[in-house]
């Protein structure tokens, strides 16, 4: 056969009297009996030999996490959130925190007998409420303010229920706490924006 020898040499096969001597594959050696490289029978395919396919990388997981963190509410939900934020912010500035700063003595005198709040603590609560109401209306601070006011209202409900012995008075603060928690959850992307602006 013309050209058979060159083809046989190309594939590492010796032709003898019209028959091909197939190289012997050894499980322990790196070369066959004809000097051609051989591979162990129990060799497993390496990462380089595996076919290419889609796989989850660190960049992909980071991107998915970033998408979850930068969640933005829809148009209708955003309007509802802003309505609540403005109303509750004004309520805490004018009706709740403001009086504690403007007339703390009158509030302390009208407090129930079993609920004695120190003057300094009353001023501190008023400052926190006014600051929380203002920050609630600032886009980048809304989630942080809502989370803080949620904790504050839970403490207020616990005070009414366990110290003032008026559990019914703790219902309204708990409702506010649930609303603030929902606002903080929906505005959680602002925490990322705030962290980014502070890191610059």
TrEMBL record:
Bilayer topology term: Multi-pass membrane protein
Taxonomic superkingdom: Bacteria
Keyword Membrane recorded: yes
Coiled-coil blocks: none
Any one of the GO CC terms: membrane
Protein name, UniProt field: DoxX family protein
Highest classification ranks of the organism: Bacteria, Bacillati, Actinomycetota, Actinomycetes, Mycobacteriales
Region listing for Disordered, in residue ranges: 24-61
């Amino acid at each position: 056969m013309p050209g058979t020898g060159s083809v046989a040499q190309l594939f590492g096969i010796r032709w003898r009297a019209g028959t091909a001597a197939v190289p012997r594959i050894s499980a322990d050696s790196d070369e066959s009996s004809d000097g051609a490289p051989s591979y162990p029978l129990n060799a497993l395919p390496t990462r380089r030999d595996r076919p290419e396919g889609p796989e989850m990388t660190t960049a992909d997981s980071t991107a998915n996490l970033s998408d979850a963190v930068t969640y933005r509410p829809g148009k209708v939900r955003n309007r509802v959130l802003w309505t609540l934020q403005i109303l509750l912010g004004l309520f805490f500035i004018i009706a709740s925190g403001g009086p504690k700063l403007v007339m703390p003595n009158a509030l302390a005198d009208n407090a129930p007998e079993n609920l004695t709040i120190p003057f300094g603590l009353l001023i501190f609560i008023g400052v926190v409420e006014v600051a929380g109401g203002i920050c609630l209306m600032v886009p980048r601070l809304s989630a942080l303010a809502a989370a803080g006011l949620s904790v504050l209202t839970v403490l207020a409900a616990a005070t009414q229920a366990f110290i003032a012995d008026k559990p019914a008075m703790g219902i309204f603060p708990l409702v506010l706490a649930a609303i603030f928690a929902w606002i903080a959850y929906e505005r959680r992307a602002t925490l990322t924006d705030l962290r980014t602006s502070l890191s610059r």
